[in-house]
Amino acid sequence: MFIWDETNRRKIRQHRLSPEQVVESLNDPAAVIFEARIVNGVQRYTQIGALRDGRLLDVVYENYAEDIRVVTAFRPSADEREFYEEQ
After folding, report:
1. Which of 5, 31, 65, 79 could form a disulfide with 49 if both were Cys (CB 3.0 to 4.6 A apart)?
2. Which residues pair with 70 in a beta bridge?
3. Distance in angstroms (rounded) separating the CA atoms of residues 58 and 71
4. pLDDT of amino acid 37
């Protein structure tokens, strides 16, 4: 289950993305974890995944047992796209 609130919806809207696109990217079977770090005591992951149209997204999220709270999502940098394509 995905946890959505006004804060994370606003952040992805700023990048012209929808919650549906973010979920689609997270469900990419070829998605890769690009980075993991602890922020304010919570483990955060940055995952790069593709949409059906081939565009890539970086999704930063926190994992809470069975739930995922998206922090933000945006287009990856050239280095991040290369990392995804090499996996």
Report:
1. 31
2. 61
3. 11
4. 86
DSSP for 5-40, please give it. -HHHHHHHHHTT--HHHHHHHHT-TT-EEEEEEEET
Total domains in the fold of the chain:
1
Is 80 exceeded by the pLDDT of residue 5? yes
Query: Which residues neighbour 19 within 8 Å (Cβ) at sequence distance 6 or greater?
Result: 2, 4, 9, 12, 70
The tokens describing 78, both together, are 């050239």
What is the Cα–Cα distance from 58 to 31, expressed in whole angstroms? 10
Structure tokens at 80: 């991040």
* 76: containing domain: 2-86
